[in-house]
Design brief:
Distance between the termini of chain A: 35 Å
EC number (chains A, B): 3.5.4.33
CATH class of chain A: Alpha Beta
Radius of gyration of chain A: 14 Å
Strand content of chain A: 15-25%
Strand order of the largest sheet of chain A: 2-1-3-4-5
Oligomer: homodimer
Protein name (chains A, B): tRNA-specific adenosine deaminase
CATH topology of chain A: Cytidine Deaminase, domain 2
CATH architecture of chain A: 3-Layer(aba) Sandwich
Helix content of chain A: 25-40%
Structural class of chain A: alpha/beta
Order of helices and strands of chain A: HEEHHEHEEH
Number of helices of chain A: 5
Cofactor (chains A, B): Zn(2+)
Keywords (chains A, B): Hydrolase, Metal-binding, tRNA processing, Zinc
Shape of chain A: globular
Family (chains A, B): Belongs to the cytidine and deoxycytidylate deaminase family. ADAT2 subfamily.
Largest interface: A-B, 37 and 37 residues
């Protein structure tokens, strides 16, 4: 298992934790110098706060860990393609690399519906790598199947 | 002075408070049933957190005040055109009306660089009204003039 797969596995574990809270299962991990500095999962319903997506919570934790709002040399691993809010937070925090587990054709903002993380008109460009992990999409499919 | 101008004046007062913290002067107010339920200003540097823009902080406060992450019948007054992150948070929270004080041609995501709040491919559409308040732009111009 290569390093990217290992970090994505940990993001998937985070997504599974979200299920305990009956939240949409999305997880995120932020890595610097090959060390995990933040992990988070979706907590929107639990916190009654629409900004509490996994990515935003992970960014807040990473900034606290580094005592810096700039995450220049950091990589984020996230199980689902970030929405416009989270893609915007990723460019605000200057995250360097973004590894995405599966795409979101309803609100993905890293290429699916629009592209905020790779947009020449904005002030930061993120390296994006799609890992297409089946567990990421299966977790979501099963969650929404049970919801209906 | 009409009601919209009154609420924008209060957003401008918030923006002025940001100056005390040497933050980019942006302020936001959220209104429901003609009553203010949240006010906030930029606190990114103070909190060392890139998500602490005025709009995000105001949304978090408003959700707490209503004990609900859905701000369906709420209006936001903000002194500067929201960035992609904040425009994304506005659609996540389902805010109905957005009143903007001045545009941001570098990272505005309500029409200037891109448009997230009025995009048929996304799941929420916001009514946007531009108020073009000179104080909103002057506050920013003076701030950046002194920074240099």
């Amino acid at each position: 298992m290569n390093q990217n797969s290992v970090f994505m596995e940990i993001a998937i574990q985070e997504a599974r934790k979200a299920l305990i809270f009956n939240e949409v299962p999305v997880g995120a991990v932020i890595v610097k110098d090959n060390k995990i500095i933040a992990t988070a999962h979706n907590l929107k319903e639990f916190n009654n706060d629409p900004t509490c997506h996994a990515e935003i919570l992970a960014i807040k934790k990473a900034c606290k860990a580094l005592n810096n709002w700039r995450l220049n040399d950091c990589s984020m691993y996230v199980t689902l393609e970030p929405c416009p809010m989270c893609a915007g937070a990723i460019i605000q925090s200057r995250i360097k690399n973004l590894y995405i587990g599966t795409f979101d054709d309803r609100s993905g903002a890293c290429g699916s519906v629009l592209n905020i993380v790779q947009n020449d008109s904005l002030n930061h460009w993120v390296n994006v790598q799609w890992l297409y992990n089946k567990d990421c999409s299966l977790l979501l499919e099963n969650f929404f199947k049970h919801k209906r």
